[in-house]
Amino acid sequence: MLNKLWSYFAHDIGIDLGTVNTLVLVKGKGIVIREPTVVALHKKTRQILAIGGEAKRMLGRTPAAIEAIRPLRNGVISDFDTCEALLRYFIHKVHESPEKGPWSLPKIPKPRVVVGIPSGVTEVERRAVQDACLSAGAREAYLIEEPMAAAIGAKLPVEEPEGVMIVDIGGGTTEIAIISLGGMVISRSLRVAGDELDEAIVNYMRTRYGMLIGERTAEEVKIEIGSAFPTDKLDSKATIIRGRDLASGLPKSLKITAVEIREALTPVISQIIQTIQEVLEETPPELLTDVVERGIFLAGGGSLIKGLDKRVAEETKLPVYVADDPLTTVVRGCGEVLENLDLLSKVRVTGGLR
């Protein structure tokens, strides 16, 4: 009875703990937080000064005493203490107790948390994520692999005896998996994704034009005119990029076309497609037949690169579809398993109490 009462009052949450953005879903309420995975802190005291969007605005603009950092790299925790502070901030933000009064409810219990993690992380890295959640205030912390969460969030039939192929292109990792009967038959976690696309633009501007730009500028250019497949409408577009001339050290502005940005992105996109092809080559024939009939499903922010679905379809000779609202597929999948505990018991990687 007490456990049921706790479950009723607790705001169980699903978290897509991404390298670039963190999304938080509250059971019964939907997605309530979409914030950049960035923390600003004082270098000496390690005091947290800002988290999320406010901290992201500080990237590249902080004085010597303050640093704005991303506590996750390539989908795994690189700074445990900062990541724990980030999780505690998000958990407390959606799980505040009501004001006390003569007729107030008992103190709201700690939430059950489901977190999506890359499929290729080690046992130590898994334990780090789980410990961070428990230390941040979770009653129970369960981990599910991102490709499984993305497939569930995209409403794909993961429990059926049929092959489903999902490609989740995030900020730090690209997750590729063949799913059947509630498990991943084949999976690959490629630590090449949105961050490497941004870095490719930075390197292109440096080598081609002798110009240094920041990662944030590269990301904005990628979103504005980045593409993976030629189209007349997009190829006529251009944008002004501002940075520093490496020769003179002075500010510099250049007009860059969408064709040039596609040239910069092509090596990274080719690497992702090559891994997709390798997974297809290893897929058992019966499941491959299902994938040929059903197609490949793209999720994650990287799938929003214009023309990526056409490029993947051309290279693999298979139909390719982009999931509805691909940025939220993983966190929506985490929310689905919070509603269906039987499904959670099948797909979770690990989980437990404090």
TrEMBL record:
Domain of life where this protein originates: Bacteria
InterPro entries associated with the record: ATPase_NBD, MreB, MreB_MamK-like
Keyword field: ATP-binding, Cell shape, Cytoplasm, Nucleotide-binding
Positions that bind ATP: 171-173, 219-222, 301-304
Database matches in CDD domains: ASKHA_NBD_MreB-like
Protein's GO biological process: cell morphogenesis; regulation of cell shape
Location(s) in or outside the cell: Cytoplasm
Pfam families linked: MreB_Mbl (PF06723)
Keyword ATP-binding: yes
Main location: cytoplasm
Assigned GO CC terms: cytoplasm
Gene3D superfamilies, A to Z: 3.30.420.40
GO-annotated molecular function: ATP binding
PANTHER family from the UniProt entry: CELL SHAPE-DETERMINING PROTEIN MREB
Function noted in UniProt: Forms membrane-associated dynamic filaments that are essential for cell shape determination. Acts by regulating cell wall synthesis and cell elongation, and thus cell shape. A feedback loop between cell geometry and MreB localization may maintain elongated cell shape by targeting cell wall growth to regions of negative cell wall curvature.
Family: Belongs to the FtsA/MreB family.
Subunit-level organization: Forms polymers.
Protein name: Cell shape-determining protein MreB
Species whose genome carries this gene: Candidatus Daviesbacteria bacterium RIFCSPHIGHO2_02_FULL_36_13
Designated gene of the protein: mreB
